[in-house]
What does this fold into?
Amino acid sequence: MSPLLARSGWAVAASRHALLFAAAATVSCSGQPATPSSGGPRLLVYTRTLGFRHDSIPAALAAVRDLAAREGLEVQATEDPGTFRADSLRNVAAVMFLHTTGEILDAPGQDALQAYVRGGGGFLGIHSAADTGHAWPWYLDLLGAEFVRHPAIQAAVLLRQDVVHPATASLPNRWSRTDEWYDFRASPRGRVRVLLSIDESSYQGGGMGSDHPMAWCHPFEGGRSAYTALGLVGAALPRARPRSAALRGRARPRRLQSLIVAASFQAVSERHLHTAASG
It folds into this structure.
């Protein structure tokens, strides 16, 4: 992604969409409540890269901070693997890997993340979080799939796979956007709740065929995990309207990310898991 594109509103729009999509997914893919935090809710955003580094990271992080602030959620952004220790993760509402790449945690950090998830924590993976931890099988299971390649950035058609999940309930069944479309080593379908897939006939270079998920969530070892491959390039997002008085009272969304805020981001910030779906 070029620096010019990274500085544009496109990157910010995509980052907002990806953040809130993943937040909605973690909220609704587990049937067990998390332990309330003793302090203010905090989102730990990890952006370390030991492989390719996306130019869009600063814009993505700015979007995360903006949205979190609106929801009363503190953001702790770091590239320090030493942050991943049991004491440091105790009061974290969710951990986000934002455009990470490579083997970015040391052994104590891996142990801490495992304990955090197994204790009911939430994990959000954005875009190249799937190009992370290739040598760590537990992480690949947590995320759901492993990145292997992508064609050139281009427009494609996304397909809604779940009509009731709060992250996708308001979306059209099909819509077009421009992004960097990932292929994965294998489809996670059957192990995760697939929320979005992509129509490979709508773009050039896809290599997974008719079953090509692009966003999903699942309960995992006592915690919950969500991933979206969307988020590198921003394009116009589908318009959506709130479907209930409660949502109308919280926000009057003109774009998708606003509706997802209204429907679910508050629940993540409060470390409260809805039980509408078990994954």
